[in-house]
C-alpha cells in the first residue's frame, strides 16, 4: 500500500457534499472458509522441514521482516530538514493501546541527543528552600509510580485545517503515542526542595541545544506530572528523552520536556525564555488565544483507512480506532458509516484510563457499499468531539494547533479509502 500526496504542496482533497446511502447490514456471512484442499494444510512446508533460529540469534528482538512497513514515517515537504522535524506513529497498523517505543512518533527541535546516565543531572532551583541536584541513581531511590498516558503534539492534525490533505491516519493523526511510564512524581521532588510560598510556576528545560523551555503552573506540576525514566517497561529510547523525560498528562506534547535537566520554581511564567507565543491558537476573527494546554477529546478510525484498506471482501468487518481526552477518561465513542446520518455506539476494548488512549471496535457487516466513516469521542466532562465545520466556525482555517475535529474516511466499493471532508 503506497501513500500518495498530490505533489509537494498538496491540493485540497475531495470534498463530498451530502452523505452516501447506507447499505443494509446482512447477517449470516462466515469468517472461516469450508475445509477443502489447501496445500498449506496438506503439504509439509519448508519451515517444518528444517530447524529454526537459536535463542541467541537476536539478543534484542526486532519485528519480523514481514512487518517492515510498520514504521514511523515523515512527510518531506513539512520541514526543511530532519533535525527540527517530526515523524508519525503508524497508528493505522497497530492495535491495542500501547505504542511500542520503536514506532512512537518523534518531535525534536534540535535533534535527538545521546546522554549517558552517568552524565545525567537534574537541578531544582529558584523559589525553593534548598536547591537540589539529582543524579540518575538518586531518582531511582524515590517512591515510584506506573501510569499510562498519551502524548499528543499540539500540531497533530494541524495540516487539515484548510481542507483534507494527507492520505493516511498515520499522517493526519500520528503525532500521538501512548505508553506506560515508570517514574517519580515531580511533586515528590519539589517537596524535597521545599517550594516557597511565592512559587507559583515551574520552568522546565531539557539538556538539548533547543532546551525546549516551558512554563507549567505549579498546581499542575504538583498534581500528576512525572519525572519518568522507563516507558513500556524498558529504558526510554534516545529519541524520547533518555535517560529522563517529563510526562505532563493530558497536556500538549511540547511541555513533555525530554532529557530533562532543570526545574526552576518561579513566581510567574517565564515568557522571555519560552515559546509561549509560538503555541497559540488562531481564531476565526484573526485573534489568538494562548495557554490552551489541555488536549481536548479526539478520536480517529485507524482501520479501515487510506493506508489500511479493506482487502478481504464482503462480510464481517472490524472497524477500529483510538479515542483520548486530556480532560480525563473517555466515556463513549460513536461510529457512523453513513457520514453522520446514523450513529452506533462502539465497543470499548477495556476500561478507559485517565488521560490515556482507549481502543474502540465496531463489528460491522460490509456488503461493498460505499461508506463515510467517522468516529466521535465523548469524555467524562460531557464534552463531545466537534465536527470540522463546528470547529472551523470558532477557529477559522488558518490555525495549526489543537485540531480535534471528527475525521472522515470515504471507503469505496473496492475497499480503498480516502481522506475527505463532508458538509
Ligand atoms: N523536549 C526537548 N528537550 N526538546 C524537544 O525538541 N519536543 C517537544 C517535547 N519535548 C522537545 C521536547 C514536542 S513539540 C513534543 S510533541 C514532544 O516532546 C514529543 O515527544 P516524542 O519525541 O517523545 O514523541
Ligand atoms: Co509537539
From TrEMBL:
Cofactor(s) of this protein: Mo-molybdopterin
Record keywords: Metal-binding, Molybdenum, Oxidoreductase, Signal
Enzyme class: oxidoreductase
Keyword flag Cytoplasm: no
EC number: 1.8.2.1
Organism name: Sediminimonas qiaohouensis
One biological process term in Gene Ontology: sulfur compound metabolic process
Gene from which the chain derives: soxC
Record-linked SUPFAM superfamilies: E set domains (SSF81296), Oxidoreductase molybdopterin-binding domain (SSF56524)
Pfam families tied to this protein: Mo-co_dimer, Oxidored_molyb
Ranges of residues in domain Oxidoreductase molybdopterin-binding: 115-271
InterPro entries, per database record: Ig_E-set, MoCF_OxRdtse_dimer, Mopterin_OxRdtase_euk, OxRdtase_Mopterin-bd_dom, OxRdtase_Mopterin-bd_sf, Sulfite_DH_SoxC, TAT_signal
Protein name: Sulfite dehydrogenase
GO MF annotation terms: heme binding; molybdenum ion binding; molybdopterin cofactor binding; sulfite dehydrogenase activity; sulfite oxidase activity
Leader peptide range in chain numbering: 1-34
Stretches assigned to the Moybdenum cofactor oxidoreductase dimerisation domain: 289-407
Amino acid at each position: 500500500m503506497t501513500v500518495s500526496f498530490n505533489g509537494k504542496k498538496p491540493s485540497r482533497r475531495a470534498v463530498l457534499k451530502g452523505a452516501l446511502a447506507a447499505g443494509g447490514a446482512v447477517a449470516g456471512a462466515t469468517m472461516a472458509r469450508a475445509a477443502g484442499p489447501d496445500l498449506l494444510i496438506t503439504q509439509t512446508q519448508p519451515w517444518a522441514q528444517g530447524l529454526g533460529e537459536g535463542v541467541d540469534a537476536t539478543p534484542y528482538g526486532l519485528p519480523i521482516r514481514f512487518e517492515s512497513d510498520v514504521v514511523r514515517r515523515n512527510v518531506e515537504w513539512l520541514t526543511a530538514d530532519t533535525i527540527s522535524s517530526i515523524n508519525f506513529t503508524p497508528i493505522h497498523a497497530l492495535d491495542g493501546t500501547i505504542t511500542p517505543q520503536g514506532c512512537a512518533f518523534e518531535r525534536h527541535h534540535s535533534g535527538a541527543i545521546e546522554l549517558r546516565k552517568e552524565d545525567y543531572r537534574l537541578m531544582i532551583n529558584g523559589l525553593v528552600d534548598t536547591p537540589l541536584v539529582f543524579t540518575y541513581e538518586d531518582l531511582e531511590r524515590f517512591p515510584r509510580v506506573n501510569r499510562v498516558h498519551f502524548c499528543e503534539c499540539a500540531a497533530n492534525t494541524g495540516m487539515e485545517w484548510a481542507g483534507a490533505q494527507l492520505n493516511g491516519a498515520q499522517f493526519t493523526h500520528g503525532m500521538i503515542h501512548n505508553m506506560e511510564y515508570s517514574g517519580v512524581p515531580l511533586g515528590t521532588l519539589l517537596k524535597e526542595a521545599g517550594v516557597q510560598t511565592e512559587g507559583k510556576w515551574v520552568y522546565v528545560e531539557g539538556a538539548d541545544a533547543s532546551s525546549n523551555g516551558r512554563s507549567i503552573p505549579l498546581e499542575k506540576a504538583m498534581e500528576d506530572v512525572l519525572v519518568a525514566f522507563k516507558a513500556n517497561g524498558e529504558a526510554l529510547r534516545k529519541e524520547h528523552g533518555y535517560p529522563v523525560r517529563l510526562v505532563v498528562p493530558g497536556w500538549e506534547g511540547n511541555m513533555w520536556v525530554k532529557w530533562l535537566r532543570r526545574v526552576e520554581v518561579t513566581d510567574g511564567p517565564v515568557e522571555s525564555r519560552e515559546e509561549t507565543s509560538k503555541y497559540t491558537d488562531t481564531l476565526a476573527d484573526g485573534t489568538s488565544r494562548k495557554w490552551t494546554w489541555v488536549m481536548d477529546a479526539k478520536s480517529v478510525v485507524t482501520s479501515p483507512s487510506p493506508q489500511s484498506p479493506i482487502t478481504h471482501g464482503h462480510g464481517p468487518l472490524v472497524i477500529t480506532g483510538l479515542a483520548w481526552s486530556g480532560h480525563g477518561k473517555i466515556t463513549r465513542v460513536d461510529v457512523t458509516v453513513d457520514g453522520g446520518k446514523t450513529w452506533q455506539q462502539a465497543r470499548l476494548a477495556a476500561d478507559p484510563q485517565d488521560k490515556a488512549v482507549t481502543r474502540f471496535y465496531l463489528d460491522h457487516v460490509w456488503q461493498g457499499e460505499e461508506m463515510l466513516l467517522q468516529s466521535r469521542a465523548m469524555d467524562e466532562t460531557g464534552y463531545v468531539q466537534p465536527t470540522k465545520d463546528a470547529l472551523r466556525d470558532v477557529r477559522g482555517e488558518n490555525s495549526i494547533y489543537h485540531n480535534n475535529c471528527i475525521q472522515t474516511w470515504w471507503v469505496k466499493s473496492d475497499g480503498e479509502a480516502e481522506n475527505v471532508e463532508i458538509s
